[in-house]
Specification:
alpha+beta, 8 strands
Length: 400
């Protein structure tokens, strides 16, 4: 009798190479993808959780609301005396909602150090009753779990100069894995399509098959959001990615730089009420906004001295996408420039919105829920993928 020869099904070169790249990249960066996905997923509901835990510090008691707030300089002095830090108060965030407290911030960063804890010298959030000057609460953001999760996600807690590359490079490979995963998932015909969109486990008892379906089906549904998360993450990590976005949206490789504003008032002696003058004008111009941030130490986040007084206005609570920028003379408080959100070009608007898109907050609470679920699936993919490979490896090892 003739022996029956079982011919292996021919695999297209595209799927063959997709399978190899998917496996090689998965084994090489799977652990980093797991850590980055998990930390990002846990960070999604940061605002909601913190607002709930800090409710007593954020919202003021009714008896204090309605009176005139104390001068910002006086409040700053009270904070400095009570905390007795060697670094100056760097900024204050003022809510337009009069029932909410002011938030003073200490933030100093060093260029030295190989990790996050050495680079960030201080990062404290101080909640103050603006009507009485009482310090309601002090939170050390440097050691806050959400801030640590953020910097794990951003650069595995490594130096901010090269740390993002340790995440950025695996993210690029993860994008290739997502694309090759979609290619491998794509069914050949209608019959093959039936088992690709949902689980059919009625007659399946083998855990390997169930694990394969988890990796295959959940990976497909999460892949499109995962691609968006990956690209928006690379926007932060690599300047050339940001420049490419900027060029595509505005025709220029760089975002417009803020012009240096000069005022004859800069020759005058500094008005002690300059912050209050700037705050009053900001509230008048953007009365329907959520809050605004005033720099108090005369420096930007990189430590460079500012020639003017910038005020950033946030249009919506918990969002950074709708931002307006005011520039005041830092001596007299005279308004030098007003750059509202609606006058920004498309690239500038996207630059402001990229963080919100990456975290899901741009799409509201529904967006955050979807992002959270997609993040959980992305966290599971390296695990289920490894188990698929390990199962096949063990099966091959049994052959004689």
């Amino acid at each position: 009798m003739r022996k029956k020869h079982h011919h292996k099904k021919k695999v297209s070169p595209t799927k063959k190479w997709s399978s190899r790249l998917h496996l090689w990249f998965g084994l090489s960066v799977g652990f980093v993808v797991f850590i980055v996905s998990l930390s990002g997923t846990l960070y999604v509901f940061k605002d909601e959780i913190q607002d709930s835990l800090r409710k007593e510090a954020i919202y003021l008691k009714n008896e204090n609301v309605g009176t005139k707030p104390l001068p910002i300089n006086l409040l700053r002095e009270k904070v400095s005396l009570e905390l007795n830090e060697k670094y100056p108060v760097s900024a204050v965030e003022i809510p337009l909602d009069k029932t909410k407290s002011y938030q003073f911030q200490y933030y100093e960063k060093s260029k030295k150090g190989w990790n996050y804890f050495q680079q960030v010298l201080i990062n404290k959030q101080v909640y103050v009753n603006q009507y009485t000057g009482q310090v309601l609460a002090v939170y050390d953001e440097k050691y806050d779990v959400f801030n640590i999760l953020k910097y794990i996600h951003w650069g595995l807690l490594l130096n901010s100069e090269w740390g993002p590359y340790t995440v950025g490079i695996p993210t690029v490979l993860f994008i290739i894995m997502l694309i090759t995963g979609i290619i491998l998932w794509w069914p050949k015909n209608k019959n093959a399509r039936k088992g690709r969109f949902w689980f059919n486990w009625e007659a399946v008892k083998n855990w390997k098959r169930k694990n394969y379906d988890l990796h295959n089906i959940l990976g497909f549904y999460a892949s499109f959001i995962a691609l968006l998360l990956s690209v928006t993450g690379l926007y932060f990590a690599y300047p050339y990615v940001k420049n490419t976005f900027t060029f595509a949206l505005s025709g220029s490789w760089e975002l417009p730089k803020e012009k240096e504003r000069k005022s004859p008032d800069s020759l005058m002696a500094k008005n002690e009420a300059v912050f209050d003058l700037a705050a009053a004008q900001t509230e008048k111009l953007y009365a329907k906004s959520s809050s605004f941030r005033i720099t108090l130490n005369g420096k930007n986040k990189k430590g460079k001295e500012l020639k003017n007084l910038p005020v950033t206005v946030y249009g919506l609570d918990g969002r950074y996408s709708e931002r307006n920028l005011l520039t005041f003379d830092k001596y007299s408080g005279k308004l030098l420039a007003n750059k509202p959100h609606h006058e920004l070009n498309t690239a500038e608007k996207y630059s402001n919105a990229n963080y919100d898109i990456h975290t899901g907050s741009y799409f509201g609470i529904i967006g955050k829920i979807i992002w959270f679920i997609a993040g959980l699936i992305c966290t599971s993919l390296p695990v289920t993928g490894f188990l698929v490979w390990w199962g096949k490896r063990k099966k091959k090892g049994k052959k004689i």
